Amino acid sequence: MTDPTTAPSGTERPDEGPNPGVAQISHGDVRELRGPLLVMGDVDDVGWDEFATVDFAGRERHGLVLEVDHDLVTLQVLEGTDAMAPGGVRVRFAGRPLRIPVGSGWLGRVCNGRGEPLDGGPPVTGDTTLPVSGWPLNPVYREPPQEPVLTGISVIDALTTLVRGQKLPIFSVPGLPHLTLATQIAAQATSGGTTFRVVFAAMGLTHADIAFVRDRLEERSAAGELVLLINAADDPVIERILTPRIALTIAENLAYTEGHDVLVIMSDMTSYAEAVREVSAARREIPARRGYPGYLYSDLASLYERCGRVRGQQGSVTIVPVLTMPAGDITHPVPDLTGYITEGQIVLSPEVAARGIYPPVDALSSLSRLMRSGAGAGRTREDHLDVAAQVLAALAHARQSAELAELVGAAALSETDRSYIAYRGLLEQGLLNQGHDDRRSLEDTLDRAWSALAALPRRELTMLSTEFLDRYLPSEPEAT
Amino acid sequence: MVAVGKPRTGAIVRVSGPLMEVDGVPDVSMLEVLAVGPQRISAETVAIAGNRATLQAYEYTGGVKVGDTVEATGSQLTGLLGPGLLGAVFDGLMRPLSSAPLWLTQDRTTSTDDPATMERIWTFVPSVAVGDQVSPGDVLGTVPGAGSVEHRALVPPGIFGTLTWLTSEMEVHALDPIARVGTQEVLLSERWPVRAARPFRDRTAGVVPLHTGQRVLDLMYPLARGAAAAVPGGFGTGKTMMLQQIAKWSDADVIVYVGCGERGNEMADVLDGLSQLVDERTGGKLIDRTVIIANTSNMPMMAREASIYTGICVAEYYRDMGYDVVVIADSTSRWAEALREFANRNGDLPAEEGYPANLASELAAFYERAGRVTTLGGQTASVTVIGAVSPPGGDMTEPVTTDTQRFVRCLWLLDRDLAYSRHYPAVSWTGSFTRDEEALGRWHTANGDPGWAPRRARAAALLAEADRLGDLAEIIGANSLPGHERMVLLGGRLLRDGVLMQNALSPNDGFCSAEKGAALLDLVLDVVDTCQQLVERGVSATTIEQADHGPVLRAREETGPADAAGVASRRADVVRKLEELS
Predict the structure, then answer these.
(1) B319 to chain A nearest CA, in Å?
(2) What is the pTM assigned to this prediction?
(3) What is the ipTM of this complex?
(4) What's the CATH code, domain A100-374?
(5) Domain residue spans in chain A?
(6) Which of A5, B24, B115, B174 has the smallest CB count inside 10 Å?
(7) Was domain A26-95 assigned CATH 2.40.30.20?
(8) In chain B, what percentage of residues exceed pLDDT 70?
(9) Across the A/B interface, how many CB contacts are shorter than 8 Å?
């Protein structure tokens, strides 16, 4: 087994900390400045994807090499090229792709999108450094995920159970409380018995949102269980390309070296994808759909695929990306490509929000593909999978009944249809609706599901075995 | 083609992601593999202009510099074909992943000749004698213990003549000679350029079904051995799950599962599932008839492009031994995206949605490698190709989906509405097609089931009629329909829920034999007939609808995977109970 900490390019340079770049030679032959791109001439001995430090007017910026062509080197400048002029720019190349220090030194820290402290503390250091782009995990070593992460949020735990090593995104639209939900997950999630750590990567968030997130996660941060990386909406856009990679590099180390179960929350991936698009446009690449580059799928996969579990090792990386669907369009490239990579999705819907339900999860469009291996007997509770299937099937029926009621009037409905409508009300208020700070145990959650199902005639509960019905179904609330 | 001795080298002049340009490699040829830089990253030549060659790299190119040395290898991308493929996992370049490290860094050797493969010891049992006349495709002998099918060592293409020597060694390694034909040595394993189709004698005319074990496919949209099928479906429509079921249960001899730009956890799941399941026909594990090519979405993109060819090359190798092979490629859209990515970086003019203009011809070339053939050795064997398509945004008019439909015999369209209502497998009965139904109907007639084609026609008509009436009922309410139309609606529901739906996770229902599938469909059609007769006799439609149809709906779950008799035995009881309603 190869030690993942060995330098990838085979260069023998000494470890220079998080921002190596104090190389001897600096270059000043600027050929072009365009959007976030900086083209340098008369450069040799620079490799593709190398990290660089850009000095201009006493300020240090950072860049990544996008292309080397004869003596020309194209850099994307993470902080943008605002105010830069060709004269006076000095670029120093690090001689290798960007690496960051890793280890438990990150826990409890609040940093910016490049990993520099925002909490007044010293820069984060560590004994080892790792390249932020990571390496593909050999699929043969992957262990199929099969233990749950419990979020304390009923609708997720009961119906779309999050599994350790899974990637499960939250699809939302602007204006819905997806950040509140993501923060609640970050604050409450546990893995039952093992040590649980959270890495929260905020990208393109407003300052009001950032204040909310910091405040809500204060407790977990103080307990040394949380790493917070923040790229604000008015921070450099291109920096967002780096933020999730830093978060995942920290997480991989915490999981596979330190043995923790790590949850990585990345919000908002739409902001990230916009940064990718901006660079692509500046490079005049041929766009695929809606101006996003053709490699967006692979780019997103290089992030999302860093989740997982490794055979014979403790620890796991679970990823919950949050993304807002522009105009609520699930076929927009960002949610669409995300959906193709991730193992299910949690969809928030304005219709559900309008019914006064928090979290406004549209349970019927949401799905956790790994739930079947992460829930049920020996994982959560024996009846869990069957109850979840029954709750969803009945909810689908209830939705049809409600639509029918709108057409023909509630009075014309059959008794069965009326019981479905009653069931939906009980389910929404008893199970789906929950307080922002409310943390429910799994037992409580499943019992609430059973209470709602009790509103239906027993003959309708076809997905539940007689054994489960006898054991868990509360006695009929109404006389027949 | 290659000057022996002096290495042919050049120097890198440009690097942009997986695209590199190199100057000065003498006599470099198209598709030739080159080793780049001190890490010896492997790359393939895709264009030559004067002194300059354009390369696509099969690894992450971080750290590659202008001026780095490039060395031509003199060969194309080749796979090492021999015993030991079955049950193993390879990357897109056919390098064994089973013996690779946890993290797939650049430092991996680029060779397919990894030590574990080279050191493995096999026994060769000759079935010819010195002095025999042999020609390509003839069986030289067998290698026991190499998977669940008999491994046959064949005379490679292009070698004819008298067998002059046979190995007397009991133990042979992958690259040891096992025989000599004339003066040419035949090794136990064979190197083959993966992009080149392996030769066969001719395509055969007969049509024989591939039984997939999935009712909706076998009953409604059957696939012939050697045909090609495409499975388009948006995310969440259960594409991968259905393909995994086919990998587990179809009655092929060998399965090649190509995970092309898909999820790592899924590959782990395939590996895990196949390692646990017993192959009913051989008593071994299903993994022992399977070769997995895994190039997950975070592995280098250009190796994804190669993985499709690697998979089909392995399939042809087993076809040549006389086996029926199924190649499952999940997903061909990711492969097409790799083509697009590279074409864009190379500055090619795009056709539709940025895809290169040769997309359709590349797809055609891939699907046309499917076929039922007479091998060089004279046996009938087949390669069946099943390709998943992942249309962006579920848009069935995008180029990969539309082009693919032109080249396949079967389309299994997965419908998002069905999937969201948890109807799995979500194969749409309005958008799917098979172009072999008549030929397959004749095959069934000749092989003991003359009712197959009429049964299929009735089911298709019932589904279409139930859909039409369902739309009507949504507007005016089902209760406003006349009784016989309400029976059609009921019949449609019984057919969908009791026959077409299949629970992949159930031990009884995950796999369904042809006979059980036929019995289930017969049961539903009989029930529909009975209900129609009852309505004609004046029984109220509501009474019939509210009757307990559980025995029909649960038949698929409550009888064993091949228990056709168990299904048939329900018929009398179900019909009698319905008759009692009048």
Answers:
(1) 26
(2) 0.91
(3) 0.86
(4) 3.40.50.12240
(5) 26-95, 100-374, 384-472
(6) B115
(7) yes
(8) 98
(9) 212
